[in-house]
Write a structure and sequence with these properties.
Elements: E1 6-15, E2 20-29, E3 35-44, E4 48-55, E5 60-67, H1 69-73, E6 80-83, E7 85-88, H2 94-106, E8 114-120, E9 129-136, E10 157-162, H3 163-172, H4 178-189
């Protein structure tokens, strides 16, 4: 991690409870040639993957609904968020991770997934990069009810929604999750359904 515009990098761990929050102090070379000392906080939760499951024949997508405490703290009265299936990579590569998470969360066993892009979702404070995937699904691929893993304290509701309705839910505010909006718009732009 070498950058000629950064020197005197110092990291201080502020919290290492759920994930790692660090205070970062560094000197940054500005465009005008002067050095400026800056301080930031960076939250490291690892990298992740997300997927949009779509059924071309039925014109449906599979999404999840689960409680997210940060959204509740920010005014989402129920704390429930509708989103695409997602998970942290842990030690897996992105493709293996998303196949595992898809089965755990949605109950669908997908074997072929297509990576469509990568994105930083909150680069001002979070180190995470997310790998975005899409995959076609059929009813025959449903191997169990889904819902996540109890030992990970997951309580996930699986939703099968008409694609047109999911797009409308962005406009109504029923879908507010960035990764979900991006994948639904990807599906629309690339005419997956």
């Amino acid at each position: 991690m070498e950058n000629s515009r950064i020197k005197n990098l110092q990291l201080q761990v502020l919290s290492d409870n759920w994930y790692t929050l660090r205070k970062v102090t560094f000197d940054f070379l500005k465009k005008n040639g002067t050095w400026q000392t800056q301080q930031r906080e960076a939250y490291d939760r690892g990298n992740g993957a997300t997927i949009l499951l779509y059924n071309q024949a039925q014109k449906t997508v599979v999404l999840t609904r689960q409680f997210r405490i940060p959204t509740y703290l920010n005014g989402n009265e129920s704390g429930l968020l509708i989103e695409t299936c997602a998970g942290l990579l842990d030690k897996d590569n992105a493709e293996d991770c998303i196949k595992r998470e898809t089965e755990e969360e949605t109950g669908y066993k997908v074997t072929e997934v297509k990576k469509v892009f990568e994105a930083y979702m909150s680069p001002g404070s979070v180190t995470e990069i997310i790998h975005f995937f899409v995959a076609a699904y059929t009813k025959a691929q449903k191997v169990h009810e889904g819902g996540g893993l109890a030992h990970e304290q997951e309580d996930i509701e699986v939703l099968e929604i008409p694609f047109v309705q999911a797009l409308h839910m962005i406009q109504t505010g029923e879908i507010k999750d960035g990764k979900t909006i991006m994948l639904l718009q990807y599906a629309q732009i690339h005419q997956l359904l």
